[in-house]
Specification:
Number of helices: 5
Strand order of the largest sheet: 1-2-3-9-4-7
CATH architecture of the largest domain: Sandwich
CATH class of the largest domain: Mainly Beta
Oligomer: single chain
Largest sheet: 6 strands, antiparallel
Radius of gyration: 18 Å
Helix content: 25-40%
CATH superfamily of the largest domain: Jelly Rolls
Length: 182
């Protein structure tokens, strides 16, 4: 059930703005705004933030408004997971983007052959996951281990951590982060 684009279009038209004016104000291309509003493209967090800023809203206000208007869902088809990825070779697909007051981030992570996070990541949370396909080298602090299908991890995300696909093909992880950090 696409909702972000519909809500953005509603906010834009309520403010009396055309897509071209919103494009100028936000720095996001007219065609990207059009695709997002028609739910043909999922915006990155940065893109959504730029559009909302041009509409005078914050990300948190936008999602609070969305959450209050939508009854909670329980089930999500694979094509309904929201892409929140930040790299061409790594995909992070979020389960339950529209779930109100979400207290965890559940992700389906896909790593192309050789893909790796750019630099050590740290954030104030706990993180766990299970490799569901391939082989991922997980480095946490000064410890590193290659995890294969069925292997898992759990760590304090305040420690610097990296992920790297060491398999010849795509590798996948199902992971959870609590509290949500994005």
């Amino acid at each position: 059930m696409p909702i972000i684009g519909t809500k953005l279009r509603e906010l834009r038209t309520r403010r009396g703005l055309g897509t071209r004016e919103l494009a100028i104000r936000s720095g996001v291309s007219h065609s990207a705004i059009s695709l997002i509003e028609r739910d043909r493209m999922s915006p990155s967090v940065d893109t959504l933030g730029a559009i909302l800023g041009a509409l005078g809203l914050t990300l948190s206000a936008f999602f609070e408004d969305l959450e209050s208007a939508i009854p909670p869902r329980i089930f999500y088809a694979a094509n309904e997971l929201t892409e929140i990825g930040r790299a061409d070779r790594i995909s992070y697909r979020l389960v339950g983007m529209d779930y109100p007051n979400r207290r965890m981030l559940l992700l389906s992570e896909h790593y192309a052959p050789g893909a790796a996070t750019d630099a050590p990541i740290t954030h104030n949370a706990e993180e766990a996951g299970i490799v569901t396909r391939g082989a991922i080298e997980v480095t946490v602090g000064d410890q590193s281990q290659v995890l294969r299908e069925g292997d898992g991890y759990y760590f304090d995300s305040r420690q610097p951590h990296l992920f790297r696909n060491v398999a010849e093909g795509e590798s996948t992880i199902v992971s959870a982060i609590t509290p949500p950090t994005y």
